[in-house]
Amino acid sequence: MDFTGKHVLVIGLARSGMAAIRVLHKLGAKITLSESRSRDDIKEADDLIKMGVEIAGQTVDVADRPYDLCVKNPGVPFLNNPFLDKLKENGVPIITEIELAYQVAKPQHYLAVTGSNGKTTTSTLTYDIVSKAYPEKSHLCGNIGIPLCEIVMEEGLMEESGHYIVLEISNFQLINIDKFRPDAAVILNLSPDHVDFMGSIDAYYKSKTEVYRNMKPGDIFLKNVDDAKVLEYTEKYPVPCDVQTFSLDRTDTDTFVKDGFVYVCGEKTLPLSAIHVVGKHNLQNVMVAASLAKAAGVSNQDIIAAVDAFRGVEHRIEYVREKDGIKYYNDSKGTNTDATITALKAFDHGVLLLVGGYEKGLPMDELKKHLGCVKKVIGYGACGPRLVRETVGEDGIVVNTLDEALAEAVKLAVPGDTVLLSPTTSSYDQFSCFEERGEYFKKLVNAL
After folding, report:
1. Average pLDDT of the residues of the chain
2. With left for phi above 0 and alpha for psi between -120 and 50, is residue 350 left, alpha or beta?
3. CA 167 → CA 170, 240, 336, distances in Å?
4. Lowest mean pLDDT, pick from 5-14, 217-226, 311-320, 435-444
5. CA distance between the termini of the chain
6. H-type helices in 64-187, by residue range?
């Protein structure tokens, strides 16, 4: 699409919206920003005005103008949204900044990672491996916090092709794709999440399959045959490209574990002794990262070196400190019940579990089955009372804030115990994002 003189609406600023605006400005588009904040509250306002961007509100009359395209911030709800309904009624195409970046960039090698849990760990490790082989042409972006549009601008990808883009991609970003097509992709797993945003679990699961919708023979989709929902939804929405299966429990798949090694496509690739992150879930993450890297042509030597150096990612079962014989772990990225279950599987006893945050309406039935290692459940925030009520009832503790939850845990903990922040839900009641929540928790812990 030639953007010169085209009228483009950007809904929601944040980092991704600003990155999209910079790309559109470079391409000569006429840009309107629809933002809930007033101009005085937008720190980038001066830059926007210099670029000729009109800053408008989010009333329906703003949506009722003649636009050629809309770039929507992934966090803007699309269900029961009169603003978006008006755009659709007027026939305005709606995309996210990832789709915009994909369409304006020269051809690149995209490795896409989605799923309910493990995306950040897998994406980060995949990038670490790929950058060993292609140090000047490897980039990590997407849902991990760096917009693809930003990489396109900073690395000159509208002028240069052949880079390796490791893209963590959420269902929010997949909803509005059009032409986006990765070279290799994976749905790591599927478990209930974002029902509040998507309207139903079925809609959430279906949105994940969008990652392979445009893929073609020769592209590679990695299928997790250990996950019943992945199998169900890849059958319901057939994969149109080459499929490579992987499993932690079987050896009749393309990629598997046997005799102390990870085999990728039947080739002995990686010794288990090189893996230092804990938990069975992390073994699967490493297996997928190695498979994506092999799909990108990376050697076994580079895979082993990168995995051996990898120590995990921030906010995902992150060791904070030990004090008075009590260990503290930050799992702020545990924003759904399955993530918390995964974290609990890394411990065998004495866990003081801190849960709570924004009310997403997720059921606690499965989590309740995995509390064998938990000594006490402490709930805080908007949904803390419900989470405690539906997991342990009167045996739990309910407080208002994360500070109070940690204080209760410290009172109850004895040497050998573990205090684990793994909230099961998002942070938006008291924090702007899971990163802010995790940083705040670590600050509290380090001040003990």
Report:
1. 95
2. left
3. 10, 20, 21
4. 311-320
5. 56
6. 82-89, 97-104, 119-133, 148-154, 171-174
Q: Does pLDDT of 1 surpass 80?
A: no
Rounded Cα–Cα distance for residues 444 and 438 (Å)? 10
Banded model confidence at residue 145, pLDDT cuts 50, 70, 90:
confident
Reduced DSSP (H G I as helix, E B as strand, rest coil) percent helix, strand, coil of the chain, to 5: 40, 20, 40
d(CA 317, CA 266): 31
CA separation for the pair 292, 126 (Å, rounded): 7
Structure tokens at 30: 């006429």
Q: Are 158 and 104 in contact (CB under 8 A)?
A: yes
In the numeric block, which tokens belong to residue 326? 């009590």
Q: What percent of the chain has pLDDT over 70?
A: 100
Looking only at the bridges linking them, the beta strands covering 164-168 and 138-142 are parallel
pLDDT in tens, 74-122: 888 888 899 999 999 999 999 999 999 999 999 999 999 999 889 999 9
Residues 6+ apart with CB under 8 A from 402: 354, 356, 380, 381, 421, 430, 437, 440, 441, 444
Around Cβ 39, how many Cβ atoms within 10 Å?
A: 14
Cα–Cα distance for residue pair 152/160, rounded to 1 Å: 9
β-strand pairing of 220-224 with 184-187: parallel
Amino acid at 130: V
Torsion of CA 279, 285, 290, 291, to 10 degrees: 130
Helix (H) or strand (E) holding 411: helix 402-412
